[in-house]
Amino acid sequence: MLQVLVLNTNRVIIGSVQHILPILIATLFCVFIIRFSNRNLSVEQKQQVFKYFGVFVSGAIITYHSYLISLGNYSITTDLPLFLCSFLALIIPIFTFSRKYWMFEILLFWVIAGTTQGVLTPDIAVGFPSFDYFRYWIVHLGLLTIIFYAVFALRMRPRFKSIFKSFMALQVYVVVIMAINYFLKSNYFYLNRKPASASALDYLGDWPYYLLVVELILIPFFLLIYLPFYLTRNKSNKNSK
Prior knowledge:
This is TIGR02206 family membrane protein. The protein is an all-alpha fold. Helix content is 70%, strand content 0%.
């Protein structure tokens, strides 16, 4: 019980204050900013807020990696921003500034499927108040906030074929990361072994079987993410008749 209540600088434990508190704060902020934007901001102002989110999240990941490089022990085999959420945080301003629909189609499923797993089972070696701790939560919860803002404030919606676009784009990303892992002898995207902390991958078998299981469940998982959009669209169509 004390382990759940007391802050420490060791690896973040699932269910601890260091795990739950950032999620609660981000959830409250996300609900507030979306409600405030819808009630008080014009379309142009919403788009400006969207840009700020992208800059903030990307700035966090750039600052963190700049800090690691300044320490003089930066390793290209472990430290490059090639894990999915870090990579998305790095490129997210491209989406928040351009608001390209094809990017939304891909990012919606990547962020909700991938980032949610990272939020539920955080892989943070050094807890509060380390730089890595704040970087981790800004990136993961920031990406989710951006996607929810796109959906509920900017009114962007996926189509059914968006599921398959996102899936195929992820396959391209995986192939590229596999090649990088091969040449660097690295484990980006956990393609060669599971993370050190507890994760959903622990329930999917050993390598390489967990990779095959993930491939098999991706489409059903993406369909589950799409389901609320499908149901609300059908309800709107019925109400308009």
